[in-house]
Amino acid sequence: MTRRFFEATSSVAIALATLVWTADARAHEPVFSPGPHTLYQGGLSTAVSSKTAFDGGREGPIGLTGGLSYGVTPDVQLSAGVPVAVDRQSNHGPSTAVGDSVLQVKWRAWKELARGRVDSLSLIGAVKLPTGHHDVSPGNTGYTVGATLAREHQRYYLFSSALYTAQTAGRNGTKPGDVFRYNLVTGVRPFVLEYDQPDAVVLVELNGTTTRPSQSPSTEETGGGHGNGHQTLRAGLSDRDEYGTVRQAHTGGATEIGSGGDSGGTELAVSPELLLSWGPVMLKGGVQFPVFDTFDSADRPDFRVKTSLIAQF
Amino acid sequence: MDRTEIRRAHQMTAALAALGAVLLVSAPALADIDSYTVGVNGMACPFCAYGIEKKLKGLEGVASLDIHIEKGTVDVSVQEGKTVTPKAIREAVQEAGFELRDLEIRGEATITDADPPEARFTADLSLPVRGDHPDAGERTVHGTVSKKGESWTLSIATTGGGE
């Protein structure tokens, strides 16, 4: 392996370490958190999402996630997602790497339907598998369980969700911190139009994330702020995805933990967003502004941008 | 209206009710259903309602759909000569993740106990009047049958044919 390839891979590793690894083929749900909606029986949905963090005017690497969902029954949905990191600002030109894949099952355990309204509760289980490239994947498995409760109305939306991700140790014995995510979302549909017309929904999310400290074989609880050449990138990409975080990077030599997840802490963020749909296609996007955190200061970006394109078949 | 006419009207109503009851219980076949108006619970947005379109259009015999988000209804036109049963409509709605609120049938239909039990169910019936009744023969009577839960109601809304 050449030094150049190694450096490029290491850079991508940092990017990949921050990727959203959820199976991101969701429909009428918030941009940064899940909702209880499930596909119709036999339905297929594909999604492509892009997520980037910005810090000090600098754009971090892009996390692209391709997802596929299938409606087993009207209330059970299986999803799979594969992330790809794209680092456009690498010193060695654009580089990409495939990350760990995610499998997810969602079960709409309760629903109450009325004219123009759905109240429902779904239980979510997901597993992140260590299938990514060994230079960029930490080689651990993450198990996520959670629930999401919502009222979806023709005029307004109310979502809430709570998810806990337990992480196993990676191939070098380092265990990323477990992650607890909690979200509250509200939104309105300004205009109730007909089926064949474009539809718009405006949402605002309040996202909370609490991450436990990472544990490595050498230190039981690793302190934050490991300095290295990727500090800026990490700061720009500091990210906590829907079902936990993959923040550690294997940079080739010693095992290294990403700057955010190792020390643990809590972040609160506000995310305004817009959902646009027309027929079976939806484009949605949002900007997430961290407003409070107890992480290292370098770990907090100015904002994150996420967009998704979803199609049902 | 004199007493004879009143008596005749009562007789006719009784005969029609009896005929309707017989049809409800015994006749297994569906006649020509032209269209349905399907009341759907849970249809909150166009994107989510796509499953309804997929499922109902997947039924053999469905000619076209018209989905009304705000009213929460779907108008379903049936191809001429084809049959789409109320039960199939109900299953399609459920497989799409929604709930049948009510089902209105236009055309000639026979409702049986196999039809959706939880729905408010309305149908227009064309009932030929037979037997010894003076008004029997070629006349056709239009009535409505409603089913809510386990209760059936037969109402004669209008009568057609020669008065």
Quick summary of this structure?
The complex is a heterodimer of chains A (313) and B (163). Chain A is mainly β and 313 residues long. Helices cover 7% and strands 50% of the residues of chain A.
Overall description:
The complex is a heterodimer of chains A (313) and B (163). Chain A is mostly beta strands. Helix content of chain A is 7%, strand content 50%. Chain A has helices at 3-16, 231-237, and strands at residues 44-55, 58-59, 62-73, 76-87, 95-98, 102-114, 117-128, 142-153, 156-167, 179-188, 199-211, 249-250, 255-256, 265-278, 281-293, 303-312. Chain A has a 12-stranded antiparallel β-barrel. The radius of gyration of chain A is 19 Å and the shape is globular. The termini of chain A are far apart. The model of chain A is unreliable at 1-23 and 220-261 (pLDDT under 50). Chain B is α+β, with helices and mostly antiparallel strands. Chain B contains 3 helices and 7 strands, in the order H-E-H-E-E-H-E-E-E-E. In chain B, strands 2-3-1-4-5-6-7 form a 7-stranded mixed sheet, covered by helices on one side. In chain B, strand 2 and strand 3 form a beta hairpin. In chain B, helix 2 runs antiparallel to helix 3. The longest helix of chain B has 24 residues, at 3-26. Chain B starts with a helix and ends with a strand. Mean pLDDT of chain B is 72; it is low at 21-29. The A-B interface holds A 27-28, 37-43, 71, 74-75, 108, 111, 113-118, 152-154, 189, 192-197, 199, 201, 277-280, 282, 312 and B 39, 41-55, 67-70, 72, 94-99, 101.
